[in-house]
Amino acid sequence: MGILVLLHLSKHMAINPYEPELAKRKKAFEIAYAQLSKHMHKLRNHGAEFRQQMEAADEALKDYRATGYALAEWIERKPEG
Q: Could you point out which of 18, 35, 55, 58 has its C-alpha 20 to 30 Å from the C-alpha of 48?
């Protein structure tokens, strides 16, 4: 897990850098789940059109993230020269 992610998450819940890696990853997942649940609950109060727009934005974000990861992996594997 990257240090920036840990620093961001540490603002929300203390993460001990000496915990085993699996425990740190589980705690980070729990924090992300709690944040997502909170925001999804707030969305229920908005109209159907707003929720559809948010779903479309979420799909676009997933595509952006996936293509960004794919590009980064390709760049890392590309031989020099």
A: 35
pTM (predicted TM-score): 0.47
Give the whole-angstrom CA distance, residue 41 versus residue 39: 5
Model confidence pLDDT, tens digit, residues 19-75: 788 888 899 899 989 998 898 888 888 888 988 888 899 999 999 999 998 999 888
Which DSSP category does 78 fall into? S
Residue 43 near residue 54, CB atoms below 8 Å: yes
Q: Which H or E element spans position 47?
A: none
For 37, phi then psi, to 5°, come to -60, -40
Computed on alpha carbons and rounded to an integer, the radius of gyration of the chain in Å comes to: 17
